[in-house]
Design goal:
about 90 residues; mainly alpha; elongated; cytoplasm; nucleus
Length: about 90
């Protein structure tokens, strides 16, 4: 009987250690997400915040972004008209 009891106590202690580690990881992750959330709130425009709050209240998914992300121009804007020649005329 003592062998069963000591085995169970050992198993419980081991499980407690695993759970403590998971709690520690979750607390760290929560802290990171809170910092990210705070940063995003400070960078968001008032219009974006209003749109977000409206989505939260209605429970609707976020609308697709209509403004293209900053970066190099697309190939369509770089294409030159076909009638344009830079060579000498004959």
């Amino acid at each position: 009987m003592d062998l069963v009891k000591s085995h169970l106590m050992y198993a419980v202690r081991e499980e407690v250690e695993v759970l403590k580690e998971q709690i520690k990881e979750l607390i760290e992750r929560n802290s990171q997400l809170e910092q990210e959330n705070t940063l995003l709130k400070t960078l968001a425009s008032p219009e974006q915040m209003a749109q977000f709050q409206a989505q939260v209240q209605t429970g609707s998914p976020p609308a697709p972004q209509t403004v293209p992300p900053p970066g190099p121009p697309s190939t369509a804007t770089l294409a030159q008209p076909a009638s344009h020649n830079s060579g000498p005329s004959a």
